[in-house]
Amino acid sequence: MIIVSLANKNYKDRLLLSMKQSKRFGYDTIPYDIGGLGFGKKYTINSTILALNVKSKAHICLSKPAIMLDAFDEADETLMYLDSDAFLIDNIDEVDTDDYDIGVTYQGGEHRTFINAGVLFIRQTEKARKFLEMWIDRVDAVTEVMERIPKKRIGDNILLNELVFSYVTMGGYLKNKVHLVDDIRVKFFDASVYNNIRTAFNTKPVPDTTKVIHIAGGSYERFKEVIRIWGQ
């Protein structure tokens, strides 16, 4: 398994720390440079996306599926997409199984159901390719989405959730199971394990089962401190 990530110059230091953590557990990273990163594969954001009247962060987020597809075409093993502000704290070899095409990280419960696009698993199957292409199609039609939801919500998460939940009924029953999106096997991994989203100032202990921490907000110095606390 190999990790794919992306960043611009503003997230360079976070990405370097995240890559160092991944290497500790035996995983190499394919980094994509989307603006001033200074290393990795250079990627130019689609002009149609850049023309959208949204925040620059949304331009980056909307580019994720195209970057994943580019990495998919170059790799010959399972990919893990990892946001540059997320990092591993344990080995994750157990996710590399052949019972799914796409793995999403799911915050599922009785009252809250949500997929976060900061961590995904992409198997080397034609159905995985089809999923990424379907996601890209939704990005291409994002202007239609902007007509019905607030501009500030435009990004990778809303389109990924709309794609998946147009085929699958929301509910807590989804977690740790495989469900079909069209004819694509999508596995709903537990986000508390593989995409534990926390604020930069949350120093409460993480569950013993957590293997990936995703930091929401905060400065680079705070991110470095969080890795010092949980990443050793």
| Gyration radius, in Å | 17 Å
Helical segment count: 9
- Helical content stands at 25-40%
Number of strands: 11
Shape field? globular
Cα distance spanning the termini: 22 Å
Description:
The chain is of the alpha/beta class. The chain has a single domain, classed as Spore Coat Polysaccharide Biosynthesis Protein SpsA, Chain A. The chain is built from 9 helices and 11 strands. The chain has helices spanning 12-24, 47-50, 56-62, 64-74, 126-140, 142-146, 156-165, 191-194, 220-230, and strands at 2-7, 29-33, 41-42, 79-82, 86-88, 102-108, 113-122, 178-181, 184-190, 196-199, 212-216. Strand 8 and strand 9 (184-190) form a beta hairpin.
Task: Provide the descriptors you would attach to this structure in a database record.
232 residues; alpha/beta; Spore Coat Polysaccharide Biosynthesis Protein SpsA, Chain A; eight-stranded mixed β-sheet; three-stranded mixed β-sheet; 11 strands
Task: Describe the structure concisely for a colleague.
With 232 residues, the protein is of the alpha/beta class.
SSE blueprint:
Layout (H helix, E strand, L loop, with lengths): L1 E6 L4 H13 L4 E5 L7 E2 L4 H4 L5 H7 L1 H11 L4 E4 L3 E3 L13 E7 L4 E10 L3 H15 L1 H5 L9 H10 L12 E4 L2 E7 H4 L1 E4 L12 E5 L3 H11 L2
Parallel strand pairs: 1-2, 1-4, 2-3, 6-9, 10-11
Antiparallel strand pairs: 4-7, 5-11, 6-7, 8-9
Helix pairs in contact: 4-5, 5-7
